[in-house]
# Entry
Amino acid sequence: MEEIVHALGIEWKHLLAQIVNFGILAFVLFKLVYKPLLKVIDERIEKTKEADLKSSSIDDKLAEIKELEKKTLDEARVMSKKILADTEKNAESLSKRLDEEAHARIKKLEEAGAKKIAEERDVFFADLKKQAVEIVAIALEKSIKENLDASTKSKITESAVKEVEQLVKK
# Structure
């Protein structure tokens, strides 16, 4: 075996020196590079885990916010429907009240018109009665002026006026 090692050009002293150098290099690299590198990698893994937790927390909060938004919109829709229904009900009652007030005003106007017509009719008939009495009195006076004395004339005139008044009252 020594021949094979020598044929390959390997010397034990050099091989031993290279093994020692490799050991020192491996130790130095392990202490100065590998451990700090592992430490940095572990820190990054931790930060990644924290970021994942924060991300999931943010996602949960976002879902809660969306649910709250949906709930608020649903409540707003219900409230707006209620307000709309109340407004329609109020509009209907206001419309009915305005109709009733209009009918009451119309009725008052009709009653006032009927009263005014009745008053005008009464005035008209009073004037008509007065004129009829005057016409009858003038006609009687002319017809009896020639044939009767004054006391008889006044009695006949009074009785004629009374009869005309009774006819007019009917």
